[in-house]
């Protein structure tokens, strides 16, 4: 280390980074996979800002073989001149000065994805090394930082400049910023960047930033490795020319969020082919929305604030819904599409089959809710409402959209009719048998314990496996709900049909939360809801249907991480004399267990849960100490939405292909992969 003098401001700066290093969770939520990706998003956000302000139109993200990652933009470049106040370069300020942005404000940082804005210095503080290159004013600047253990002081020094900012005098016409860093293995539980996590988010960012080109390259994997591992679109075709090139993908959408809507509606029947799109600004809030109706019955709303997803909704969505409902009701009246004496449509009527993307930009954002992904700024409501009204009025006046608006009203009329009929049917049914009143829950074998946080509900495929599970369980905290046959495909049903299904009603009342708008997570009776199905096609289908149901009607249950997939073993490796018994959950593990058991091993392959004894089911699948549970969380609602449409929707081709490709059930199936899985306990840090 070269000797360097630091002035007073440097010292507070370094102390700032030390604080980050000491308590990373305070700044990035966790040191698990989420936190790891968070430090990358901090850097990407800076480049996105530069693009959003019109100074860059290209961003490249690259993962290297050594696990490091870089982000490059073609913007103006971070300022390289000396900051008069701190007496250090702009580059040094950016990477060593903790961003002021409200990180000590309880409401302003989030533990669950979404909220960035703690600044590039946090990434620096949590990196083994970080290198910056700036192309600006015809020359190339470079600077380097590192973190290391200071033996004399017996502590880590974090994000310390290794080289000052230097003008390398390498002449260039280029302008932009390149940041390359290695996340610190001492900090993160894992430093393995996930290709799908990154590509999903980059794709989303490309949708949200019209015309921006984002490329992603992963040098850890070749194109053909990627394709043969089931990546890419449904057409898996080995690429002969680029076979050994690193996997690389480019996202660019001229249509921005309208292209996003088209992407979400892929494979659905659209009422009109061109999404409605409008952008406006009011009271300092930028509002952009795009909508398209399909023949489906459910609503798919994806909202964003400052490019951050807000799956829990909030005031911007309220404004959107209010504006949409008002302007469409008005349109129906003005154009005599409804009779004078007819009742108004309800907002719900206009949102049947609606796919919408709403993206707003505003200052001083407050995130709230279970997962801190709900916009809590009431001042966002009216501007969004007004711009939706203004935009849809303008669009409705254009002859090209006349048919679209008429079809929207027609669809709403259908929805209103069913709503009124369902209400009447429900009122009659409620008198005898209200959902809130079912006390005797079908075939549920309820546990005796009364502490929801300790209780587990196993949803088991089939009566026979259900019977085994009942024998195996610990009655104090484990409940068993056997499902006979297949519960109905909720994707294709209206709410009233879903509620007519007895198995689903049993499930709803067992969970205790209610569904849809009435859903209340606080009433949940079981903090672990475990789907236990066979590792075959039927089991896969049942699992998809249940996840679809949770996704559609109990989404917070999934996003709060209460849903799990139980993983029964596929094989038993044992000796005939009974001296050893080992279980394997996939083919790789099978090989390991075969080696472990040694000569004279025998293999039993389990075809279904029903083949196991109660003792085996307990020890391999139900015992909290030994089982292999996988948590389902909603990391990527968009991917889940698409996957569900493909698996559960009307079009058959994609599904067949998908099922063929994923016929190897030993692997995590791709649906599950899109929804995002964590090993039990893996996210219980912080
Ligand atoms: C600041 O104001 C003067 C002109 O440049 C502005 C700026 O900082 N632009 C900028 C920063 N462009 N790109 C960045 C950037 C890019 C990456 C990849 C990482 C970071 C920390 C900043």
- Residue stretches low in confidence (pLDDT < 50, at least 5 long) are 1-12, 100-116, 431-440, 658-679, 681-686
How many β-strands, per DSSP? 24
Name the assembly state: single chain
End-to-end CA span:
34 Å
Indicate the structural class.
alpha+beta
Rounded radius of gyration (Å): 28 Å
In percent terms, what proportion of residues is strand? 15-25%
Bound molecules: ligand TTJ
Give, in spatial order, the strands making up the sheet with the most strands: 5-4-3-6-2-1-7-8
Mean pLDDT: 84
What fraction, in percent, of the residue positions are helical?
A: 25-40%
Based on Cα principal axes, name the global outline. globular
Q: Could you describe the largest sheet, including whether it forms a barrel?
A: 8 strands, mixed
Task: Specify the number of helices.
Answer: 22
Element layout with pairings:
Elements: H1 8-22, H2 24-28, H3 33-52, E1 58-63, E2 69-73, H4 90-96, H5 120-125, E3 127-136, E4 139-150, E5 155-167, E6 176-183, H6 195-208, E7 213-222, H7 223-228, E8 246-251, H8 257-264, E9 276-282, E10 285-293, E11 300-305, E12 308-309, H9 315-334, H10 347-350, E13 354-361, E14 367-368, E15 374-375, H11 381-397, H12 402-433, E16 456-461, H13 463-472, E17 478-483, H14 495-500, H15 502-511, E18 528-532, H16 537-553, H17 555-559, E19 563-565, E20 571-575, E21 581-584, H18 587-597, E22 601-605, H19 614-622, E23 630-632, H20 637-648, H21 653-661, H22 670-675, E24 677-679
Parallel strand pairs: 1-7, 11-13, 16-17, 16-18, 18-19
Antiparallel strand pairs: 1-2, 2-6, 3-4, 3-6, 4-5, 7-8, 9-10, 10-13, 11-12, 14-15, 19-23, 20-21, 20-22, 23-24
Helix pairs in contact: 9-11, 13-19
The structure holds ligand TTJ.
């Amino acid at each position: 280390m070269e000797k360097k003098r630091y002035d007073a401001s440097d010292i507070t700066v370094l102390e700032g980074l030390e604080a980050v290093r000491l308590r990373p969770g305070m700044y990035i939520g966790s040191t698990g996979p989420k936190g790891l990706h968070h430090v990358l998003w901090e850097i990407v956000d800076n480049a996105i800002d530069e693009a959003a302000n019109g100074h860059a139109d290209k961003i490249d993200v690259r993962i290297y073989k050594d696990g490091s990652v870089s982000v490059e933009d073609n913007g103006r470049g971070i300022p390289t001149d000396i900051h008069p106040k701190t007496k250090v370069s702009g580059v040094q300020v950016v990477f060593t000065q903790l961003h002021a942005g409200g990180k000590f404000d309880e409401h302003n940082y989030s533990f669950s994805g979404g909220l960035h804005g703690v600044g590039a210095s946090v990434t620096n503080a949590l990196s083994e090394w970080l290198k910056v290159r700036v192309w600006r004013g015809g020359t190339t600047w470079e600077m380097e930082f590192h973190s290391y253990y200071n033996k004399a002081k017996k502590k880590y020094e974090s994000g310390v400049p290794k080289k000052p900012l230097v003008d390398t005098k390498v002449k260039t016409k280029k302008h932009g910023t390149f940041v390359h860093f290695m996340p610190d293995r001492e900090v993160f539980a894992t430093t393995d960047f996930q290709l799908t996590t990154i590509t999903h988010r980059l794709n989303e960012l490309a949708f949200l930033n019209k015309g921006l080109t984002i490329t992603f390259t992963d040098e850890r994997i070749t194109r053909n490795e990627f394709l043969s591992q089931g990546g890419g679109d449904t057409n898996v075709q080995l690429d002969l020319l680029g076979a050994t090139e690193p996997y690389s993908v480019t996202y660019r959408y001229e249509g921005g969020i309208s292209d996003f809507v088209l992407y979400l509606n892929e494979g659905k029947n659209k009422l009109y082919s061109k999404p409605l799109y409008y952008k406006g600004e009011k009271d300092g809030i930028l509002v952009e929305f795009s909508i398209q109706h399909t023949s489906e019955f459910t609503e798919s709303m994806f909202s964003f604030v400052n490019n951050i997803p807000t799956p829990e909704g909030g005031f911007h969505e309220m404004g959107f819904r209010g504006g949409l409902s008002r302007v469409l009701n008005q349109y129906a009246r003005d154009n005599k599409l409804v009779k004078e004496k007819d009742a108004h449509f309800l907002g719900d009527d206009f949102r049947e089959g609606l796919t919408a993307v709403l993206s707003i930009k505003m200052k001083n954002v407050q995130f709230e809710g279970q997962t801190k992904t709900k916009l809590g700024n009431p001042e966002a409501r009216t501007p969004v409402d007004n711009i939706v009204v203004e935009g849809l009025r303008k669009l409705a006046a254009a002859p090209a959209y006349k048919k679209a608006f008429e079809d929207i009203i027609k669809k709403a009329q259908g929805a209103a009719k069913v709503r009124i009929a369902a209400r009447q049917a429900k009122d009659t049914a409620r008198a005898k048998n209200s959902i809130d009143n079912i006390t005797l829950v079908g075939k549920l074998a309820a546990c005796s314990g009364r502490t929801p946080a300790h209780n587990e509900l196993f949803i088991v495929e089939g009566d026979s496996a259900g019977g085994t599970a009942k024998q195996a369980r610990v009655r104090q905290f484990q409940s068993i709900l056997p499902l006979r046959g297949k519960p109905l495909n909720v994707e294709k049903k209206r709410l009233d049909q879903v509620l007519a299904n007895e198995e689903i009603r049993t499930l709803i009342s067992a969970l205790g939360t209610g569904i849809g708008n009435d859903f209340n997570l606080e009433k949940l009776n079981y903090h672990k809801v475990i789907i236990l199905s066979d590792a075959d096609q039927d089991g896969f289908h049942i699992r998809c249907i249940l996840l679809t149901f949770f996704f559609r009607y109990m989404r917070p249950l999934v996003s709060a991480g209460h849903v799990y997939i139980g993983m029964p073993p596929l094989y038993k490796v044992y000796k005939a004399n009974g001296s050893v018994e080992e279980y394997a959950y996939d083919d790789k593990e099978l090989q390991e267990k075969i080696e472990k058991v040694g000569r004279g091993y025998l293999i039993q392959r389990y075809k279904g849960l029903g083949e196991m004894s109660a003792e085996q089911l307990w020890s391999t699948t139900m015992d909290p100490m030994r089982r292999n549970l996988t948590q389902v969380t909603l990391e990527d609602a968009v991917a889940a939405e698409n996957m569900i449409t493909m698996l559960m929707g009307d079009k058959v081709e994609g599904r067949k292909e998908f099922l063929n490709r994923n016929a190897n059930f030993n692997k995590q199936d791709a649906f599950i992969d899109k929804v995002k899985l964590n090993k039990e306990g893996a996210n219980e840090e912080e």
